[in-house]
Amino acid sequence: MVDVPSFDQYLATLGRLSAHIDPTASTPDAEDIKAAASSLGAIEDLTTASLSAWAQDNPSSVPVLGLAVGLSQERLKNNLRDEFDTSGWVTLARTRATELINWLDRDFDLLRLLAVQRTRTYEFGDVLVARAGTRVTATQAGLSGRKVEDEIEAIAADLGLSYQVRTRFTGRNDRTAPCDLVVPDSIDAQIVVAAKGFDSTGSKLTDAVREIQEMAEIRKPSQYVMAVIDGIGWKSRVSDLRRIHQLWVQGEIDGMYTLATLDRFRDDLEDAARLRRLI
C-alpha cells in the first residue's frame, strides 16, 4: 500500500468523464442559438480576434458561446473551473478573452459550429429536436457515471474475483450500506468499493458522499473499503470531496482513486484479495 497523497495531489488527478456532443449532429440547441443571433450574427468576419472582442464587450453573455457548442451553463462552469481554476466567465472575458475563445475553439470547435449555425435556417422540427436535447444530456450524464463503475468491474473480472455490483453489503452488527462493487458477495463482504463519477454537480454528489461515509461507519475491521471518484463535477464540490479524502487520511477507508490512478487501484485490490485468499 502507498502513502496517502495530499488532497491537492488527489484533486489534480480528476478528469472529465463525459464525451463532448456536437449539438449540430443530433441535438442542436436552436432556440438558444436564435436568442444569441442578434449580437453574434452582427459579426461580419468570424475569427478568434472578433469573438474575443465580442466577449470583452459582452462578458455576461459568454454562456451564449457555451450554448452554441452544446454546453449548458452548469457544464460551462465546470469546464471553466477545470481549465482556468475559476468559473467566473465575466472576469475571464474581460481580462483573458483571447485565452477563453482559443480554449472554446480548441476543445469545443467554437468557430466552426458558430459558422454552421449562423447561416442555417431553423424550422419547427429543429425546435422540437432542441427541446428533446435535454434527454440526450441526461443520458450522457448517466453514462459518465457508469464509466467509473464499468472500469472497476472490468478490473475485478480480469483479476478473476467473484463479485457483485450495485448492491448493499453487510457490515458491523448486521447493518448494511450501499456499494458499487463487493468481493465476493454482499453477505460475505470482504472488499467493498464505491464508484462515483460526475461531470455535473447536484444532489447526486451529496448522496455519494453520504454513501461513502456510511460505508466507513459500518465497516468491520476485517473489511477493506475503497473509493474510485472522478469527474470535473467534483471541482465544484471540493468541500465534499475533501470529506472523503479525510476518511482516507484517518484510515476509515483504505484507498481513494481516480481513473488516472486505476493502476494503483488494481494493485491495491489484488493485494487485498490475496491477503484474504480470494485469489
CATH class division of the largest domain: Alpha Beta
Radius of gyration: 22 Å
What is the CATH-assigned architecture of the largest domain? 3-Layer(aba) Sandwich
**Main β-sheet, spatial strand arrangement:** 1-2-3-4-5
Could you tell me the number of beta strands?
5
The termini sit apart by: 18 Å
What does this 3D model show about the protein?
The chain has 279 residues and is an alpha/beta fold. It folds into 2 domains: 7-11 and 142-275, 3-Layer(aba) Sandwich (Trna Endonuclease, Chain: A, domain 1); 30-121, no CATH class. It is 54% helix and 13% strand. It has helices at 7-11, 30-40, 48-57, 62-68, 73-84, 89-95, 97-108, 110-118, 124-158, 203-218, 238-249, 262-275, and strands at residues 164-170, 176-184, 189-197, 224-230, 255-257. The chain has a 5-stranded mixed sheet, sandwiched between helices. Strand 2 (176-184) and strand 3 (189-197) form a beta hairpin. Helix 10 (203-218) runs parallel beside helix 11 (238-249). The two termini are 18 Å apart. Residues 25-30 have low confidence and may be disordered.
